[in-house]
Structure formats: C-alpha cells, structure tokens
Amino acid sequence: QVQLVESGGGLVQAGGSLRLSCVGSGRTFMSNAMGWFRQAPGKVREFVAALSGSGGNTVYIDSVKGRFTISRDNAKNTVYLQMNSLKPEDTAVYYCTATHVTYYHTNPPVGWSDYAYWGQGTQVTVSS
Question: How far is CA 92 from CA 12, 36, 103, in A?
Fold first, then answer.
C-alpha cells in the first residue's frame, strides 16, 4: 500500500518557523514530483510548492517565495517544507503529495489533479 505520512505541524507565533516532513512508503518516489498543498477553513485547496525528482526544478506560489523552501532526500523517500517568517494567513492543513508520472528534470505541475498520491495532512496554525 502506497502511503505519504506528514509530520511537523503545530502552533507557532507569527514570524516563527516550522519544518514539515513527509515520508513515502510502498514505492519509491525518486523520479516523481513531490510537493505540498494547503487548505484553510472555508477555502479551496491551493498549491504551495513542489519539486522535481532530481530536486533541481522547484515551483512556489508567490505568497511563500523567499519564506518557504522545499527539498527532498530520495534516499529516505522524504520531502521537506521549511517554513520561515510564518504569517497568520499561512494557517491551514498542509498536504504532502506526489505524482504518478515521472518529473525528474522537468518543472513539477501545480494543479491538484496532476498528483496521484496524498497524505492525510498536518495542521499548521500561526497566531498573531
């Protein structure tokens, strides 16, 4: 059974930092794009960041550029999201995701329908 399991969420004050981790099991994701989406209460799920299998191609939404950094360790089948300078508007459930299609040296997709595997989510709450 293929699984993605997130960890690292929590409550933090504005300006603080958190590091999310997502471990994959059941198959290797080293050739696939992996990324993060988030969903705030009453809002649609939105793309946050993703990177290619090689890790050399990254994409971010504008609102997190310069604050969030996505990375991966293929030996551990793990993707990370380092979140700095957090703002209350970053409060959401963060979901780890991975494609079924290979994206090794190409820009990862940003649409949720391009991703086949999803974690259960981890809550991030930023207080003002």
Answer: 12, 12, 27
